Amino acid sequence: MQVFKEAKPNILVVGDLMIDHYLWGSCERISPEAPVQVVDINKETTVLGGAGNVVNNLKALGANVSVSSVMGDDDNGKELVKMLHAIDVNTQNLIIEEKRKTSKKSRVIAVSQQILRYDKESKNNISNESVQKILESLANTIAMYDTVILSDYGKGVLTQELSQGIIALAKKHNVKVLVDPKGKDFSKYRGAYLLTPNKKEAVLATGIDIKDETSLKKALLKLKNECDLDVSLITLSEEGIATYEEEVKIFPTVAKEVFDVTGAGDTVIASIAFALSVGKSLEETAAFANLAAGVVVGKIGSATVTIDEIEDYEASLHKSTSDAHIKSFEEIAKIVQRYKKNGKKIVFTNGCFDILHVGHVKYLQIAKSFGDVLIVGLNSDASVSRLKGPSRPVNPAEDRAYLLAALEAVDFVVPFEADTPYELIKMIEPDVLVKGGDYAGKEVIGTEFAGELRLVDFVDGKSTTKTIEKIQGKTC
């Protein structure tokens, strides 16, 4: 994930921008004027909607984002521009069209239930003059972008002429165009790098009932050939992502819990664009997008996801390499802060773990059962030598850390140089501090910084010392 954290790709989003407006209140009576609920509004919120949700997702991932769209010369348009500026989005390619209504969707919500939605918007195609203004503007700037996203919500911005014009401009400068399509006719996206229809959209566009891998391949091939795509892609909800470049590949989803799929499509295309922009392969990109979707569907409402959240989620699935679980003091401080903010219970233990054996594994499994996240402090080689003698450790810290990090029970490993983990415990302030049963009645370093101390008995006859003696032939 380090490559993603350091990346700041330049990505352009073109499409239907809108404001999602929420009126929150309570309902305790029916109107005497008509058989309708009376909602007492106590809060109003607004967020970017439509293509704006793609923008939000890209910003959350860390991209530099520019937008191009057409809006009206109205109060909603002015509000939308302020919202974009508030998150540092480049709006130089926004076009104002007289008499056009900027999209704003207002939802009335009472007792956590949406009871009404009313829209103010124009849905007719933008004018030819607006199309030309956008294309003229992009002709001078498109080369600066790593990727272009066309986010089509069917509100009239992405006309046939504009979509084809942008794709042609992008191809001249070897810039990939990714499209979140709308409707049945995908011909206006012809020549794009890839589209991201879901299964239902792909069925409508191809006329092929996708019910197995054979029909899925037919739909992917039809989309690829008819739309002249570099890569054909269909999102399959809980089944993951299917792609066709030279063969069909299905990348299974990694969602643990699904609370809400609102905006998941925006997260998928944003994460695909981000990964491709930093040079990732199609396989790496699909895996990254699946992780991002797995995070976002575990949230309520239209949501975004950060690289840190994706890294934490991948770690929780144990699909990352051991290296990804080995952290420095600085890194673990930030991770702990995030987990605590999300209400996770932090468990800490430490040791030399010189020759990993079943006693270690059972001890760590029990330690993990005390909370949500297990952090293991690992003595450095010099520290082990001072504690155990000059012949130890048998295995260097790098190897010991890697093996520990590979265990399912262990979330993170943090090497430390001192003889005790005092400073590490002080920094982490774990909810639970775990030590071996031999510490019963003894002073335990760092307990003043922990929520509670738990002692775990060791497995009889299992220790690094006994293992070494057996190897040396001193025991049998």
Distance between the termini: 46 Å
Cα radius of gyration in angstroms = 28 Å
* Class derived from helix and strand content: alpha/beta
Name given to the CATH homologous superfamily of the largest domain: Ribokinase
Percentage of residues in strands: 25-35%
Q: What number is the mean pLDDT?
A: 91
The CATH class name of the largest domain reads Alpha Beta
GO molecular function: ATP binding; heptose 7-phosphate kinase activity; heptose-1-phosphate adenylyltransferase activity; phosphotransferase activity, alcohol group as acceptor
Domain Cytidyltransferase-like: 348-440
Region (Cytidylyltransferase): 348-476
Keywords: ATP-binding, Carbohydrate metabolism, Kinase, Multifunctional enzyme, Nucleotide-binding, Nucleotidyltransferase, Transferase
Overview of the structural elements:
36% of the residues lie in helices and 25% in strands. It is elongated, with a radius of gyration of 28 Å. It folds into two domains: 316 residues, Ribokinase (UDP-N-acetylmuramoyl-L-alanine:D-glutamate ligase); 148 residues, HUPs (Rossmann fold), CATH 3.40.50.620. The chain is built from 16 helices and 18 strands. Strands 5-4-1-8-9-10 form a six-stranded parallel beta sheet, sandwiched between helices. Strands 16-15-14-17-18 form a five-stranded parallel beta sheet, with helices on both faces. Helix 2 packs across helix 8 and helix 6 packs across helix 7. It has 476 residues and is of the alpha/beta class.
